[in-house]
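As a warm-up, study this chain.
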Amino acid sequence: MDKSKRNIGPVLIILAGCFWGSMGIFVRRLGMFGFNPIQIVSIRITVAAVVFSLLLLIKDRPGFRIAFRDLPLFLGLGFGSVLCFTVCYFSAITIMPLSTAAILLYTSPIWIMLMSVLFFREKLNRIKLTALALAFAGCVLVSGISGEGLTLTGLLLGLGSGIGYGLYSILGTVALRKYSPYTVTTYTFLLAAAGSWLVCQPADMISKFSAVDNLMELLLFCVLTGLVTAVIPFLAYTLGLRTVEAGRAGILATIEPLVATLVGILVFSEPLTLLSGLGIILILVAVILLNRKQNSGNQP
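Now compare it with the structure written out below.
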């Protein structure tokens, strides 16, 4: 494989994590319009489905054709991954502290690495395990987990979000063996969007759109939300999966809580604690460690 293409893979994964890390800005803004977390999920996913469909129509119209036998794969990506992890995560943050929900979500690199070993026979070496430990410890410190308010329901929802999040790397890697990144993301989000309308109370959501004073401003912000928190990061992540192992990609994406913390500090004037600063350093060390391995030519 061309070295330049191989080197761009980690950059795309990190870029995806950075865009995901800005999600709090958009979630809080849409919440001010009265939308509940599940409705925000539906808005985000639906906008992404429309944009991805338009991209596929422009770039690769034959890409709309998929084999019927691969439908379960895309159902897994749409329902089992994107819809599952977003609904589980947004439900979790309504019944437990955000920091606790975030840590349970960021068990995803662990699940990705375990599934990669099981399904792809990826090797667990010292560098990967060290980076995984550093990244997870960094996420714990950044989120400041206390375990307060953790219930069995919350625990299951949080772990479900982590597994669903991790499943995208596994199923996405399989889908990319047969289909382009544009086909993969389009069908993933079309199916996820269809599923989201079953759980978002659509009549209530439509009434909120009807009641707003400046509908055009709200619609533009919804489009921006879909582009910044779904279209750009998921496309970048999917493109990155073509050259980056699923296990390594999961760890690189832990840049997201680092960015989310910086957004909280710079945009919402949230304080930076000593532990959060240490967590940021640990995540950066994990990312650098994996990139050094990538650039040394040891990538399989």
